[in-house]
């Protein structure tokens, strides 16, 4: 029995679980697919309902995880295979080639400041680019860059140039790196870790707006999703927190938020409520108003689900104090008017029974929260089950929400279904608690409970 | 060999130009339309009531006739296509209903007819390349806005013709004829449909938006496959056509009307068929001035890549 846990996913759930276990004195192995930890929370501007700066409350955690001597961190890594069973899992990890020797790199940032090549950034949700050598942000933990071989001129041209007997192009990062940490010949590495329990905290993907062509997803540049808008609001985002629309950089004066974009829509494969959208939309409308005082925010909603501590009050504040206009109804179609450049939002207002049209400068779609696209493979690799929507299945939804269907594998966060940050963190602590009680039992097995005197079949020792 | 063809009532009465141009174009492409014998009305709406086997008798009869004619039926009218295709899907899914109707009609239908729209035959059987090769008078320079409406594509799970939100079948047809596609935002919007009968102002308003949008996008004409769409987009334009040019037209954003054509009519022009086969007399906004312009007749057919 190995009193050591592996946590898969380095978002807020995975970090919380790893910290809880590590702070109890047991070792945690934290595996994160991206080059740095923090998950989706690192993309957010401010959190509801307190309007705390997300980065400010997240950074102490990422730093604590990064420095914890009981946490072994594998970033840019993923689980390849799992063997064994509760008490003794053997997990094979694959760490992607970073092309940078992280032991030598000091994180000075010269490489990505000087890199002349850009690529589209998943982290910035298409709102801003990143360099070919990059970190996910200024507060990245670990603050070490990786090279994207599909965007790096040196790596793209090397084979061809060397065949012609010429030197590859660029290589600016290698020339400028003060410690000589660039390794263009890097390759993926494999590791094996032995643990007694596993916590799955793999998080979610946001449905791509491309799946809603009637809303102009993927064709109208000024129709973006909720996470992209978070990047626009974020002071570490591409616009340094200024709200500017993607098409022409103009400050939007009318902005429309569309809730349930893909959620609660069986036709789109997400029949469930994504749970976080009502609140983050209320927040985004509020933050927009704080940045663009003369602007008007409109929200289309089916109904407002603000079940949570101080949540309803927060929504009411948006309506009554911040002037957000709520329209009850579904948006049927979004066009771009080529003459004015406006985005026309057409929908039903079910409170007055009429169809309504708003000429907006920017539209934000609160897209459905989806399980990770590779959740079925991950589930197969880990030997756990997923439900019809692709979320991990709990052994018992009422009493064991953080226990998977496989002994020794626990669940936390949005990987089991949509939830907000407080709920995610609570689940993560719950999963950590389950793991800790296992470890405690393994280390100090309780002696068999003696049957009471006089019970049937018990002979008196007198 | 010809293709079994179900014209339907509209094409036999009001949309005769669609019928004429469709038959002529198909014949010129080597696939003449053979009218199925003894056909009657399809019912004109797909019955949505839970227990409405009565309403399925008419479409099932047509399908039975098509079965005898070779197991396939082609239509031009989108409403007929919609009713026949959905009835076919319904009968495939419900053997019970099939049995019930067969019991009533005493003409057994076996439930295996390929229901097609001529556009589908062009795409799947002739192919766009085949159509492009047959074009004698490429419509180069003509800016065409494809308009789909609803019934051709929806419900997508049953119609299975094209993406209901971003369809391309009319786009591809227009391109194969050598014309330029004008993508406009209202191309899959509803035209108001049968509200033209009961609440005339609804399709009038919808049509105004659709036509205005096509006009603003720089279209010379709108092309459609549905007689009801054609009527709803074309007819209301009388009121903003001369002699009403002026303030009223100006305020509507339209000064000259936008002709609304059937795709078969564009085909008839591009295949260089005689004027009588164009069948454009019944249209309210006269499209003939478009075709008397010389520019599109002389330019070469643009290839697919250049269009895309």
Annotation keywords:
heterodimer, A: 462 residues, alpha/beta, FAD/NAD(P)-binding domain, 3 domains, five-stranded parallel beta sheet, 10 helices, 24% helix, B: 308 residues, Glutathione S-transferase Yfyf (Class Pi), Chain A, domain 2, Rossmann fold, 2 domains, four-stranded parallel beta sheet, 17 helices, 47% helix, globular
Show the helix and strand layout:
The complex is a heterodimer of chains A (462) and B (308).
Chain A: E1 4-8, H1 12-23, E2 27-31, E3 46-47, E4 52-53, H2 54-67, E5 71-74, E6 77-85, E7 88-95, H3 110-114, E8 118-120, E9 129-131, E10 133-134, E11 146-147, H4 153-163, H5 172-176, E12 189-195, E13 197-200, E14 204-206, E15 223-225, H6 226-233, E16 254-261, H7 277-291, E17 296-301, H8 311-320, E18 325-328, E19 331-336, E20 343-349, E21 354-360, E22 362-367, E23 369-371, H9 375-382, E24 394-396, E25 400-404, E26 409-411, H10 421-443
Parallel strand pairs in A: 1-2, 1-13, 2-5, 13-26, 15-22, 16-17, 16-22, 17-18
Antiparallel strand pairs in A: 3-4, 6-7, 7-12, 8-9, 10-11, 14-23, 19-20, 20-21, 24-25
Chain B: E1 3-6, H1 8-13, H2 16-28, E2 33-35, H3 53-68, E3 72-75, H4 78-93, H5 95-105, E4 114-117, H6 118-126, H7 128-134, E5 143-146, H8 156-159, H9 169-176, E6 180-181, H10 195-198, H11 201-216, E7 221-224, H12 227-234, H13 247-252, E8 260-262, H14 263-270, H15 288-292, H16 295-298, H17 304-307
Helix pairs in contact in B: 2-14, 3-4, 3-5, 4-5, 6-7, 6-9, 7-9
Question: What does this entry look like structurally?
Answer:
The complex is a heterodimer of chains A (462) and B (308). Chain A is an alpha/beta fold and 462 residues long. Chain A folds into three domains: 180 residues, FAD/NAD(P)-binding domain (3-Layer(bba) Sandwich); 67 residues, no CATH class; 163 residues, 3-Layer(bba) Sandwich (FAD/NAD(P)-binding domain). Chain A is built from ten helices and 26 strands. In chain A, the strands form nine sheets. Chain A has a five-stranded parallel sheet. In chain A, strands 15-22-16-17-18 form a five-stranded parallel sheet. In chain A, strands 6-7-12 form a three-stranded antiparallel sheet. In chain A, helix 1 packs across helix 2, helix 6 packs parallel to helix 7 and helix 7 runs parallel beside helix 8. The longest helix of chain A is centred in the C-terminal third of the chain and has 23 residues. Chain A is globular, with a radius of gyration of 25 Å. Chain A starts with a strand and ends in a 19-residue tail after the last helix. The mean pLDDT of chain A is 95. The longest helix of chain B has 16 residues. Chain B has two domains: 116 residues, Glutathione S-transferase Yfyf (Class Pi), Chain A, domain 2 (Up-down Bundle); 168 residues, Rossmann fold (3-Layer(aba) Sandwich). Chain B is α/β, with parallel strands linked by helices and 308 residues long. The two termini of chain B are 34 Å apart. A four-stranded parallel sheet of chain B has the order 2-1-3-4. Chain B has a four-stranded parallel sheet with strand order 6-5-7-8, sandwiched between helices. The C terminus of chain B is likely disordered. Chain B is globular, with a radius of gyration of 20 Å. Classes of the chains: A alpha/beta (462), B alpha/beta (308). Chains A and B meet through strand 19 of A and loops of B.
């Amino acid at each position: 029995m190995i009193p050591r846990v592996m946590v898969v996913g380095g978002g807020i759930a995975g970090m919380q679980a790893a910290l809880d276990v590590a702070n109890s004195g047991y070792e945690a192995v934290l595996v994160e697919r991206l080059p740095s930890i923090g998950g989706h929370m690192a993309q957010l501007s401010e959190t509801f309902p307190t309007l705390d700066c997300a980065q400010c409350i997240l950074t102490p955690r990422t730093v604590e995880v990064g420095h914890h001597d009981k946490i072994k961190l594998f970033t840019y890594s993923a689980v390849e295979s799992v063997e064994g069973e509760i008490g003794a899992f053997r997990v094979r990890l694959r760490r992607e080639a970073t092309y940078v020797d992280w032991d030598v790199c000091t994180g000075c940032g010269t490489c990505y400041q000087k890199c002349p090549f850009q690529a589209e950034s998943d982290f910035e949700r298409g709102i801003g680019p990143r360099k070919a050598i990059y970190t996910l942000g200024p507060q990245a933990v670990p603050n070490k860059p990786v090279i994207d071989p599909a965007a790096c001129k040196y790596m793209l041209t090397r084979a061809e140039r060397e065949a012609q007997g010429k030197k590859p192009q660029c290589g600016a990062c290698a020339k400028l790196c003060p410690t000589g940490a660039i390794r263009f010949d890097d390759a993926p590495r494999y590791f094996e870790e032995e643990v007694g329990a596993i916590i799955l905290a793999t998080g979610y993907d946001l449905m791509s707006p491309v799946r809603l062509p009637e809303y102009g997803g993927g064709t109208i540049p000024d129709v973006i999703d909720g996470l992209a808008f978070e990047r626009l609001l974020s002071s570490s985002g591409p616009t340094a927190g200024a709200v500017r629309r993607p098409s022409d950089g103009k400050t939007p004066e009318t902005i429309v938020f569309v809730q349930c974009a893909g959620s609660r829509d069986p036709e789109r494969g997400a029949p469930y409520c994504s749970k976080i959208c009502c609140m983050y939309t209320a927040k985004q409308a509020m933050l927009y108003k704080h940045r663009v005082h003369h602007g008007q925010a409109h929200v289309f909603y089916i109904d407002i689900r603000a079940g949570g501590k101080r949540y309803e009050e927060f929504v009411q504040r948006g309506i009554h104090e911040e002037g957000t206009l709520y329209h009850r109804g579904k948006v049927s179609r979004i066009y771009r008017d080529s003459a004015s450049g406006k985005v026309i939002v057409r929908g039903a207002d079910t409170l007055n029974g009429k169809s309504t049209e708003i000429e907006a400068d920017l539209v934000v779609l609160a897209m459905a929260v989806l399980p990770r696209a590779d959740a079925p493979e991950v589930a197969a690799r880990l030997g756990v089950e997923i439900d019809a929507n692709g979320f991990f299945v709990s052994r018992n939804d009422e009493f064991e929400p953080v226990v998977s269907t496989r002994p020794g594998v626990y669940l936390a966060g949005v990987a089991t279904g949509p939830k907000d940050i407080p709920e995610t963190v609570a689940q993560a602590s719950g999963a950590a608690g389950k793991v800790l009680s296992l470890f405690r039992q393994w280390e100090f097995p309780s002696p068999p409970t003696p049957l009471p005197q006089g019970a049937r079949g018990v002979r008196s020792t007198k | 060999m010809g293709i079994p063809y179900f014209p339907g009532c509209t094409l036999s009465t009001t949309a005769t130009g669609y019928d004429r141009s469709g038959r002529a174009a198909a014949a010129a492409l080597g696939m003449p339309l053979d009218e199925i014998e003894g056909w009657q009305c399809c019912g004109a709406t797909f019955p949505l009531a839970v227990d409405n086997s009565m309403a399925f008798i008419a479409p099932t009869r047509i399908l039975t006739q098509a079965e005898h004619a070779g197991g396939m039926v082609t239509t031009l009218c989108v409403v007929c296509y919609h009713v026949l295709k959905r009835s076919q899907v319904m009968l495939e899914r419900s053997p019970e209903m099939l049995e019930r109707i067969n019991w009533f009609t005493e003409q057994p239908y076996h439930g295996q007819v390929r229901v097609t729209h001529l556009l589908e035959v062009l795409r799947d059987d002739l192919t766009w390349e085949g159509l492009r090769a047959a074009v004698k008078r490429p419509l180069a320079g003509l800016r065409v806005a494809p308009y789909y409406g609803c019934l051709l594509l929806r419900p997508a799970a049953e119609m299975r013709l094209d993406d209901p939100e971003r369809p391309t079948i009319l786009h591809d047809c227009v391109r194969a004829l050598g014309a330029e596609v004008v993508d406009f935002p209202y191309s899959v919007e509803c035209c108001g449909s049968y509200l033209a009968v009961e609440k005339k102002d609804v399709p009038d308003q919808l049509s105004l938006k659709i036509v205005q949008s096509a006009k603003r996008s720089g279209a010379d004409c709108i092309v459609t496959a549905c007689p009801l769409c054609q009527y709803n987009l074309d007819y209301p334009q009388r009121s903003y056509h001369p002699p009403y040019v002026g303030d009223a037209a100006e305020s509507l954003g339209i000064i000259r009307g936008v002709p609304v054509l059937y795709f078969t009519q564009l085909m008839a022009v591009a295949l260089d068929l005689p004027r009588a086969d164009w069948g454009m007399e019944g249209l309210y906004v006269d499209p003939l001035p478009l075709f008397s312009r010389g520019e599109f007749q002389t330019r070469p057919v643009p290839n697919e890549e250049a269009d895309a």
